[in-house]
Amino acid sequence: MNMRETAWRVSAAELNASTLEIRATEEKMPSYVVTPLGAKVNRVLISGVLTEIDNIGTDEEPMWRGKIVDLSGSFYINVGRFQTDAVAEMTTLKEPCFVAAVGRVRTYTGDNGRMYVSVRPEHIVEVDEKTRNEWLLETAKSTWGRLNDMKKALSDPSMKVDGLVKAGVNPAQAEGIVYALENSEELPDSMKYLGVIQGALKHLLPDRSIDLGIPEEISDEPDEIEMDGPAGGSNGADIEDTILNLIRELDVDGRGAPREELERRAETEGISGLELEEVSNILMDKGLIYEPNLRYLKLID
Asked: Could you give the number of structural domains in the chain?
């Protein structure tokens, strides 16, 4: 059974600023990149404009490199022969275009000793600007949440993982925050990430005057966006039930629900591709579904 890690929404600025890594100590254990705001990342869901794409392999065995630009910086992607779906998908893309990709983070250390982060997509697809904007909003909301979680930790330096969880912080986020604070030489620059959020909101709401202020003023949610519920405005529990019912209905041969058909049916229910990916990860975290392979989702009996 292949239980996947949750795909985090992080900006290029936050991911590229990461300097910490938790390496697996046993076979088949995941490794993690820990961002300055304490996101303990194995997989990410990213979106932006694909501005560069290059096959550095051969026609028979392609190896793709590319750059996806969001409003805060650039994600660098690498797709090799082990990502068969992504390799096929890369051949259909022509830059510049909006794309969304889900995949694992990878790191390497340059000659200068600096750690660099890239993404190895499992899937990458062309999307429209509306879908990219949904990702911008969700990423801004996630970044805001991490800023507030980090502020909770900094308010009481003696607080460890259990204390943060009791204060309402997600366990994975709590572990990442504690690890970041114990292993980083400096505190995260709150103004930098407020700037990322503000840039996203100004892009999404060009007619609104948006100023998030200084770090000490981030204890309240900005009224420019709704901070609860999926981007589509539907109730999260209702979306989970809908997806579970669709998976049950589409699993006609015991292999699971085909992802392509699931995405098509979900769209008819008003559930975007990004929402489907997010809720699928939540359902896997809850132990309700699993992924027998990259093309199917299946209920856990």
From this structure: 3
Dihedral pair phi/psi, residue 162, rounded to 5°: -60, -40
* DSSP, res 234: -
- Is the entire prediction scored with pTM above 0.90? no
Separation CA 11–CA 142 (nearest Å): 10
- Does 147 have pLDDT greater than 80? yes
CA nearest neighbour of 218 among 204, 197, 199? 197
Determine, yes or no, domain membership for 164.
Answer: yes
Per residue in 201-252, pLDDT (tens digit) is: 988 888 776 555 533 333 333 333 332 333 333 455 688 889 999 999 999 9
**CA–CA separation, 275 vs 210, rounded Å?**
26
Structural domain that includes position 141: 134-217
Report the length, in residues, of the chain: 301
What is d(CA 197, CA 147) in angstroms, rounded to the nearest whole number?
11
Element (H, E) at 292: strand 289-293
Domain identity same for 24 and 103: yes
The answer to whether position 225 is within a domain reads no
Domain limit, last residue, from 107, 127, 147: 127
Does some domain include residue 210?
A: yes
DSSP 8-state class, residue 57: S
Does residue 36 carry a pLDDT above 70? yes
Report which of 233, 225, 232 is spatially closest to residue 201, judged by C-alpha positions. 225
